[in-house]
Amino acid sequence: MNLKKAFTENKSIRLGLTAETWEEAVRLAVNPLIESGAVKEEYYHAIIESTNEYGPYYILMPGMAMPHARPEAGVMRDAFSLITLTKPVVFPDGKEVSVLLTLAATSSDIHTSVAIPQIIALFELENSIERLVNCQSEEEVLAMVEESKNSPYLEGLDLES
């Protein structure tokens, strides 16, 4: 599961979107994966339900959320999508988010061993949230993913598959 490859194959980078609510932002973030067939519609509903039940546990850092649900909630194949918002939305815990990176993983192992290190590597780049929000093209986002490949978090990972 390769972040760059997943973004490209699923055509799942959408920049400068507008959402009024966190639910709408999650919808915008999941839509590219529904459109590409990586997840079923139920995946979106599972994220909303788990957020309502457990809170937005997937806000990983100020300004950034990684909405996801269980593999059995409609995941057809491993994939990522990334959206940026023109203005942040407020989640139920009061935190503001302007970058949403949706994860669809077919297993918990992929989620923890392959997906999370790549996401950490991308978001540990200096000013990552601001830089992503300012990206004007898919190519600029992919260049940041490429830049993140030097991260120590990715040592020993096979990201070519």
Automatic annotation (TrEMBL):
Keyword Transport among UniProt keywords: yes
Instruction: Write down the InterPro entries for this protein, in alphabetical order.
Output: Ascorbate-PTS_EIIA_comp (IPR051351), PTrfase/Anion_transptr (IPR016152), PTS_EIIA_type-2_dom (IPR002178)
All residue ranges annotated as the PTS EIIA type-2 domain in the record: 6-148
- Signal peptide interval: none
Q: Record's Gene Ontology CC terms?
A: cytoplasm
> Where does it primarily localize?
cytoplasm
Alphabetic keyword roster: Cytoplasm, Kinase, Phosphoprotein, Phosphotransferase system, Transferase, Transport
What this protein is called in its record is Ascorbate-specific PTS system EIIA component
Source species of the chain: Streptococcus cuniculi
